[in-house]
Amino acid sequence: MQNQMMITPNGQALHTTRRSVLEALRSAGTATVAQLAEMVDVKGITIRHHLNGLLAEGLVDAEEKRQAVGRPIYMYRL
Known about the structure:
Blueprint: H1 16-28, E1 30-31, H2 33-40, H3 44-56, E2 61-65, E3 73-77
Antiparallel strand pairs: 1-3, 2-3
């Protein structure tokens, strides 16, 4: 992306961390919150906050993966 300003579909400039999340998803294909947090080097709650915004803007998609025990894992992708 090299210092190009990204604009969301609603016409707002994209926050630097959100841009980093998108770049991480572009390189990984799919990732969990924990994987994105490690790749972007921020806490999971920060990733969740930005993912919620990106989901609302339609820039990312989430898929629920059920496990045998415990909460489902969400996989995020562009």
